[in-house]
Specification:
Strand content: 25-35%
Order of helices and strands: EEEEEHEEHEEHEHE
Number of strands: 11
Shape: globular
Helix content: 10-25%
Oligomer: single chain
Number of helices: 4
Length: 251
């Protein structure tokens, strides 16, 4: 999920967040333990959350910052980590231009800072690992899909899983170091030598539908409104049942 408005920045002092313990339905403390750069504009923020109730791949949480003067800002963010990462969660955030919360994370946050989180939230986009999954994402829309990939690997699941991920350039491909044979990247502006440049098309989607496993795919699409609409049209044109397409829109 991403920032959608730009009130005055007030989150410049680490360690000033008001926190409270709780369960999945209540706000609880999350302590930032690590920051990993993914791309020039995206980074992963790892949190220790001892009372975290666990989540399913694809779910998200609510995050809250509270300034010293009592001003608060809340955002929904998809969880990037697999459920097996007990006591910890990871969020991978784009540095959104003018974004109040993402801007604080990318410019001010340091290990040891504390925030509040509540979740996990929503079961619609969750993948429990019991059906073959076709994952299609663009930009930071790959974040909840990466939780699914990590879960698939951590559990050694035998159900088929494929990931199509779109980025403008190789440098902007989030999680590039982690992708394996299950992933096909699509680059819309520049690409490595020998890799075509262009928008995701039927040429990428149709072969996966033609080679669908018995029982077919459960399709998960995540990205901007425009990308979600485009990808879902490609899926339907290739024969994917509409009632087996789950869409998460960012922005």
């Amino acid at each position: 999920m991403t920032d959608t408005f730009t009130p005055p920045t007030r989150f410049a002092v680490p360690g000033r967040i008001a926190v409270s313990n709780g369960t999945a339905g209540r706000w609880q403390t999350a302590t930032l333990t690590e920051i990993r750069r993914e791309t020039p504009r995206a980074a992963t923020f790892r949190f220790a959350v001892p009372a975290w109730a666990g989540h399913l791949p694809g779910q998200h949480l609510m995050l809250r910052l509270t300034a010293a003067d009592g001003y608060t800002a809340q955002r929904h963010y998809s969880i990037a980590s697999a459920p097996d990462d007990s006591g910890h969660i990871e969020l991978t955030l784009d540095h959104v231009a003018g974004g109040e919360v993402s801007g604080w994370f990318h410019t001010e946050a340091r290990p040891g800072d504390r925030v509040e989180v509540r979740g996990p939230l929503s079961g619609f986009f969750a993948w429990p690992g019991d059906r073959a999954a076709l994952l299609i994402g663009a930009g930071s829309g790959v974040v909840p899909l990466m939780s699914m990939v990590r879960h698939h690997r951590a559990r050694g699941l035998s159900v088929p899983l494929r990931l199509l991920v779109s980025a403008r350039t190789p440098e902007e491909l989030i999680f590039a170091r982690e992708y394996g044979a299950e992933t096909t990247p699509v680059f819309t502006r520049t690409a490595p030598p020998g890799v075509p440049v262009g928008r995701m098309s039927a040429a990428h989607v149709a072969p996966l539908l033609e080679a669908a496993p018995p029982g077919g795919w459960e399709a998960y699409v995540c990205g901007s409104d425009a990308f979600a609409e485009h990808a879902s049209r490609l899926l339907v044109a290739a024969g994917q049942p509409v009632d087996r397409i789950r869409i998460e829109r960012f922005g």
